[in-house]
Specification:
Oligomer: single chain
Strand content: 15-25%
CATH topology of the domain at 2-143 and 387-538: FAD/NAD(P)-binding domain
Helix content: 25-40%
Radius of gyration: 23 Å
CATH superfamily of the domain at 2-143 and 387-538: FAD/NAD(P)-binding domain
Distance between the termini: 29 Å
Bound molecules: 3-acetylpyridine adenine dinucleotide
Structural class: alpha/beta
């Protein structure tokens, strides 16, 4: 039996929630298929100790309902995973979204019929849904990457993957714990695990740059004053030339701030800007000097500043050096935001194993064998990242016109127009897809922008009696090239990061997110719509 709908959405994270709300409001029939047992997407799965957002709570939240933004009380500057999940649940309940969501449902395929002009979406259980439109709200970091390490499956102790953490509490008391992976997840988890475990061994292959969060409880007076200006702040976040994280001063700043360029600063001035940003905390550290991600000298200066900070915090100079990244410009791998990460290595029961000088040979039933020693463990945690941006899409069998598969068409890297659609796949939208600011932005800003754009597009199609939309090959090719040109004008491609697919063996190397900033990107999308959806073909 199949169910026929206007729109099928895959994924009930924040993107799926907001889109289903807008569709429901517009009177369209919609079904959301979600593989988890609840809403929340990334915040449903990533329950590892210390998991919290690296965007500030007042910015990492929906703006579409002023009643919601006024009513919801964030307790901390950077909300922890349980609070963000509670927020997602609140949104689902408040807007009556649950009745349209089918949980515990994994989509295995989506195929377009050229004759019926419909999508057929099939689940693992064999259920079939047909719809005029299919929207992939599948998240950018939703397919965990399991490292290829000999013997990983042989470990007989407790084993956890950060991005698939159990729902029951995990207790590390009295245990010898090992953790592999020092990206954002590992850097958040390590201080918290160290607080419980008898002994913690951190297996680090590549050190990452991390800045202090200076997290803490939010001051209700500050929150009230900020919320009094919420619309202006939101406009600022959406239209600014940065990543949409925005300023969190009480008085909203100008939207387009002229960046302070490195060459206009003396070393002393540059250092004071960095000191101020370091003591304020958070990822906005990267914006202290406006061309840090464009100018190698600026970047090297900022790197040296952070190396000096690591040396100040970490007592053992050998460990400080091992923790200091030298393989990539700062910010070209996602900057981490931590609470006591570097200081954790001063604890006598915490050890760093530098896998560059002492690689893992294999994992055995009871520990990790490196080139120089055997480390016995009761518990092993892996925080080894994701098949980012394309992983969830390519895990499904998606086929478009003439049965051509997305995997085949993207075999040399993802090709999209605006990160919203792919040529040959009519009526298939992606939210925060490759080619849009996506993972380089505040996801809430980008999700709302994509959903609003899609809703306007659907209404326009209805008015003009158009049944299908897809990008023209030429517009798509020009966009793919533009995304690369923008990326190549920055230092990002030097990062060797998951932004490029570099963490997955065999994955094509292509810089996937659009690096020009959320404001300029929004302006492009809006101008495309104003010009009768320039670059799209309709049937
Ligand atoms: O994953 P990562 P993540 N042997 O890919 C190591 C978002 N996020 O889950 O660099 C040994 O960054 C790997 O080493 P290397 C955020 O956007 C946000 O931490 O490949 N080590 C690296 O150290 C973030 O960027 C938040 O040499 C191996 C680590 O595993 C993104 O998710 C919180 C290995 C993977 O780091 C991904 O972060 C968490 C091997 N075989 C995540 N394979 C917040 O909002 C991999 N590694 C704060």
């Amino acid at each position: 039996m199949s169910e026929s709908l206007d729109v099928v959405i895959v994924g009930a994270g924040f993107a799926g929630l907001y889109l289903s709300h807008r569709l429901q409001e517009s009177g369209r029939s919609v079904k959301v298929l979600e593989q988890g047992s609840d809403v929340g997407g990334t915040w449903y799965w990533n329950r590892y100790p210390g998991a919290r957002c690296d965007a500030e709570s007042l910015a990492y939240s929906f703006s579409f309902s002023s009643a919601l933004e006024q009513d919801w009380h964030w307790t901390e500057r950077y909300a922890a995973q349980p609070e963000i999940l509670a927020y997602a649940r609140h949104v689902a309940d408040r807007f009556g979204l649950r009745s349209r969501i089918q949980f515990d449902t994994r989509v295995v395929s989506a195929s377009w019929s050229d004759t019926a002009e419909l999508w057929t979406v099939e689940t693992e259980a064999g259920e079939i849904f047909t719809a005029n439109f299919c929207v992939m709200a599948t998240g950018c970091l939703s397919v965990p990457q399991r490292p290829v390490i000999e013997g990983l499956d042989d470990f007989e102790g407790n084993f956890y993957q950060a991005s698939q953490w159990p729902h029951e509490p995990v207790n590390f008391n009295g245990q010898r714990v090992g953790i592999i992976g020092t990206g954002s997840s590992g850097i958040q988890a390590i201080p918290v695990i160290a607080g419980e475990a008898d002994h913690l061994t951190v297996f680090q292959r590549t050190p990452n740059f991390s800045v202090p969060a200076h997290n803490g409880a939010l001051d209700p007076t500050w929150v009230d004053a900020f919320k009094a200006n919420y619309p202006a702040h939101r406009t600022n976040h959406k239209l600014g030339n940065g990543s949409g994280f925005g300023d969190l001063d009480i008085e909203p700043r100008a939207q387009m701030i002229d960046p302070i360029l490195f060459e206009s600063l003396s070393d002393g001035q540059a250092t004071s800007l960095l000191e101020e940003a370091w003591s304020r905390g958070g990822a906005r550290f990267m914006a202290a000097i406006g061309d840090t991600l464009m100018n190698e000298s600026a970047n090297a200066f900022v790197q040296r500043f952070v190396h000096a900070k690591i040396s100040e915090i970490v007592e053992d100079p050998v460990i400080a050096e091992a923790l200091s990244p030298t393989s990539h410009p700062i910010g070209t791998r996602r900057i981490c935001v931590d609470s006591n990460y570097y200081a954790t290595f001063n604890e006598p029961h915490v050890r760093l194993v530098n896998l560059r000088s002492d690689p893992i040979l294999k994992i055995t039933a009871n520990g990790v064998k490196t080139e120089s020693e055997f480390i016995e463990l009761d518990t092993l945690v892996i925080a080894t990242g994701f098949d980012a941006m394309t992983g969830a899409l390519l895990k499904m069998q998606i086929s478009g016109r003439e049965g051509r598969s997305l995997a085949e068409i993207w075999s040399e890297g993802p090709k999209t127009y605006l990160g919203l659609m792919t040529a040959g796949f009519p009526n298939l939208f992606m939210i925060t897809g490759p080619g849009s600011p996506s993972v380089l932005s505040n996801m809430m800003v980008s999700i709302e922008q994509h959903v609003d754009w899609i809703m306007d597009c659907l209404s326009d199609m209805e008015t003009k009696e158009r049944h299908s939309i897809e990008p023209a090959e030429s517009a798509q090719a020009a966009w793919v090239e533009h995304v690369q040109v923008v990326a190549n004008s920055t230092l990002f491609p030097q990062g060797g990061s998951w932004y490029l697919g570099a963490n997955i063996p065999g994955k094509p190397r292509l810089f996937m997110p659009y690096a020009a900033g959320v404001g300029p990107y929004r302006e492009i999308c809006d101008s495309v719509a104003r010009e009768d959806y320039r670059g799209f073909d309709f049937a």
